[in-house]
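The records we work with from here on pair a chain with its fold. These numbers are not coordinates but entries in a learned vocabulary of local backbone shapes. To see the layout at work, look at the sequence and tokens printed below:
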Amino acid sequence: MNIEHTKLSQFFPSIRARELILSEIDSNPVLLNIFNSWEEDQREEFLSICTGNKGAKMLYDSFFKEILNAEYYPERLSSLLSQIIGKKVTVKTVLPNDNTRLGDESSLVITDIVVELEDGTIANVEVQKLGYAFTGERSSCYSADLLLRQYKRVKGLKKKKFTYKDVAPVYTIVFLESSPSDFKHFSDNYIHKFKVTSDTGLQLNMLQNFIFIPVDIFIKKLHNEGIQSELEAWLTFLGCDEPDYIANLIQEYPQFKPLYEDLYDLCLNTERVMDMFSKELQILDRNTVKYMIDELQEELDTTISELDAAKSQLDTTKSELDTTKSELDTTKSELDNTKSELDIANETISDKDAQIAVLQSQLEEYAKKARKN
């Protein structure tokens, strides 16, 4: 059998050739049934990942939680969060999500991990495949919920010794694989940090922090400028599946090689990785449907708003026309009155002219008689 090797297989010997993977799938009716249920491009995507023809999308929920598992590899997530937050942090424990997502909006969130750091800080790491509308508003709600959960938990532990100083900061960290349009206006920025500040310079320990990372914008920067920092190395690991960039990454930052090795060791278990991939496809289907519904709703809201504005403008125009008509009617009435006054004046002038003519005729008669006498 002529086995074709891929670029990444030279770095990761555990990567299997396409022919061997297909042979295993063909020999297992259950796996073959799953494989055939996928679309052609999905089958190619799966084979490309497992054979190293392209890298895996580490922002996939299953891969993210497996490779960055905070229970087994807390140092990995600690390193990532340290680079994002901008100071050294250590993941202490993973907290339950406690169903913080509101309603069906959870379908838009691919990954959602809540961890407690060594200093008590709470960090919520989430990945959105498609950045949805009202990003700021929704993140604010989730952050408030996270803060309230921490408050209740700490107060329950401290009892009467509790003070608000015991409540630690919370970070909401959002990776946007395909960012909303608002972020496109800042094409030179791939990380946005928000924190409550005053307009006077007064310093208070406000607890809510937000960090948004539009990965698609970072990838464009990566293509133009390459990797320039450890944070960018992490974002390359998470968001880039191009073999050339992965090869450069593990050569410049060899600490990422064990993470990829874990991934390709995982790919040796074809049944498990196919199950993971199937779940990703289901999540993405739900995500796409919800995103489309949100987009349609936003378009509908915009259309209604535009119609309301147009109706308001029409009402204003009608009111202005009514006012103009009233003014025209008033002007017409004034013109009619003026015309009537002019007609009366003309009649008076005509009468005066007639009287003048009679008087002039009488004067001429008097003048004739005077000449004869």
Summary: Residues 55-268 form one domain. Strands lie at 91-95, 109-117, 122-130, 170-178, 192-195, 208-214. DSSP finds twelve helices and six strands in the chain.
